[in-house]
Amino acid sequence: MTAVTNVPLLPAVIRRSPVPQFGSAELRPLAETDTNAALVQLKEFLDSPRWSQQALGEFTDRWQALPQEQRETALQTTLARQLSDTLYSQLLEERALEGLDNSAGESLAGQEKIVNFARDIGLEDRRLEVSE
After folding, report:
1. Whole-model pTM?
2. Which of 15, 80, 129, 131 lies most in the core, judged by the most C-beta atoms within 10 Å?
3. Could you give the CA distance from residue 125 to residue 104 in angstroms, rounded to a whole number?
4. What is the pLDDT of residue 99?
């Protein structure tokens, strides 16, 4: 029998974040044939996220120009959950900056940028809040 070596041990307790709230409807997976422009826009952002205020503003402007039905449909898909998770990850990075000298103001501004972006596109997730 061969001994297993170099296997990292997992911590006894793994902290999980609360599950995002996406309404009462079940999330639907993205179909290969989906041509919804809102879904395409979400996918493009997820493939190459850009966090500058200008890039987020451009995304929001394009998003708001789409038909409401397409936006609502897109926000009920697994892509929306992926976007929410991506935004949460970026928010955690911004929060990590709070503890560094001279970075608290930048951290809060970065957090607000992410939270406002989520709100502006209609993405609801309890995790996406500016830290107090």
Report:
1. 0.72
2. 80
3. 23
4. 74
Which ranges in the chain belong to alpha helices (H)?
37-47, 53-65, 68-74, 78-96, 104-121
- Using DSSP, state whether 102 is helix, strand or coil: coil
Angle at 130 between CA 126 and CA 11, to 5 degrees: 65
- Could you tell me how far CA 46 lies from the centroid of its own chain? 9
Structure tokens at 122: 């209609």
**pLDDT of 18 above 70:** no
What number of residues does the chain have?
Answer: 132
**CA 104/CA 99 separation, integer angstroms:** 7
Q: What are 70-120's pLDDT values in tens digits?
A: 999 999 999 999 999 999 999 999 988 887 766 778 888 999 999 999 999
Contact between residue 107 and residue 94 where contact means Cβ atoms under 8 Å apart: yes
**101 φ/ψ angles, rounded to the nearest 5 degrees:** -60, 140
Using DSSP's 3-state secondary structure scheme, residue 97 falls into: helix
CA nearest to 92, candidates 57, 128, 38: 128
Measure the CA dihedral 68/73/78/83, to 10°: 0
